Amino acid sequence: MVLIFGRFHLFKRQRLEVRDWCEHCGKRFRLQSYTAWEFYHVYFIPFIPVGRLRVMNKCPGCQKYLGMSIKKARDAMEEASAAAEQALAAGNVDEAIENAFTCLHFGDYERAEGVLSRLDPGDGRILLARARMLRMQRQFTQTEALCRQAISAEPENAEGHYLLAETLIESRQIDEGLAEMKQAAELAPDALDVRMVLMDELAKRKLWLELLPVMDEIVALSPDMSQDKHFSRLYKKAEKKARRKAATQADKNPYQAY
Ligand SMILES: [Zn+2]
Predict the structure, then answer these.
(1) Dist. CA 27 → ligand 1 center (Å)
(2) From the DSSP assignment, how many helices (H) and strands (E) are in the chain?
(3) Is the pLDDT higher at 1 or at 128?
(4) What gap in Å lies between CA 56 and CA 5, rounded to an integer?
(5) How far is the CA of 84 from the centre of ligand 1 (A)?
(6) DSSP conformation class of 94
(7) Residue 2 pLDDT level (bands cut at 50, 70, 90)
(8) For residues 172 and 190, what is the distance between their CA atoms, to the nearest angstrom?
(9) How far, in Å, is the centroid of ligand 1 from the Cα of 58?
(10) Beta bridge pairs of residue 16
(11) Phi/psi at 228 (nearest 5 deg)?
(12) What is the 67 CA–ligand 1 centroid distance (Å)?
């Protein structure tokens, strides 16, 4: 008889999610952070509460996460909050934003919002920081509105286009999302991460003809990628599929070749 035994989390609060690569399995997923009660279970029936904890970046693929006691999470949050106050006093906007995000990661949205509310609301960095925070709470409509506001003030803001793209894709507006993602890549010619995300989204939708040039750009920026097993396998597959697709299109229109 196989006894199914393990731990799981109930009564989740202060939930956040970031779509990112899992540091354990290397795949891109919606990584979840939350505060919850941890229970031991047998056959998924909870029977012993272990305690409350802050779960950080739980991967739905490999199930790995970083667990932290509530006290430790609160201490880390207080430390970030004090650092944010210092940054505000010194007029260091970027550092204040970074510490506001740390407060949010440890579960305190009010504290994070409190830091942002004391900065210039018209500053593009603040608009996008607020948009990212709302995105982490899956408030897609508000995220989209803030991104559009930031982009209309600064049309060449690659981060704004990227965040808008991610939000549109997440709320199933795929075509517009992919177009925004391509624009973000064009505006940031050295951004490897934007291209890696674009590659992931195009591959997922089997858009082989569009995928190949993006993969070429990735190799140009980071030649080591061509040695990566998964990357080269995807590249070969994309090449084959793209060739087949081009051949089918030529068959349909025999005069195109002349
Ligand atoms: Zn994982």
Answers:
(1) 6
(2) 10, 4
(3) 128
(4) 22
(5) 31
(6) H
(7) low
(8) 27
(9) 8
(10) 33
(11) -70, 130
(12) 15
